[in-house]
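Sample intake sheet
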Amino acid sequence: MQLSKHFKLEEFEKSMTATRKGIENKAGSGEIKNLTDLCYGVLEPVRAKFDKPITITSGYRSPELCEAIGSKPTSQHTKGEAADFEIAGISNLKVALWISNNCDFDQLILEYWKDDDPMLVGFIVVLKREVIENKS
């Protein structure tokens, strides 16, 4: 299912852990709506700005998958409101700074950042603009 010009639902549901453990990781209609909002509100603008493909490293997670990986079952990932992603050849710090100045979001987490580490972007339609930085 195509969520936006450059993103498909399958990219957000893909999980090696879910496959290995036999966990169903399928978003429902509410989560799909939120993922679509995430695509249009953050990911497509980022894709347009940097003119490079975005690799989703973690998107939708069922509560069971969250528990299996040691995350909270209340994570924004379970609602389709968050995605971890990276852009090859672009500093995650540069991407995060651009997002913080140009996109609406609930949380922007630049986690243990180095130039080659993925970053987590949480996005909810009700916005409060919080930036969290955790350096390794």
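Comment: Residues 122-129 have pLDDT under 50 and may be disordered. The radius of gyration is 14 Å.
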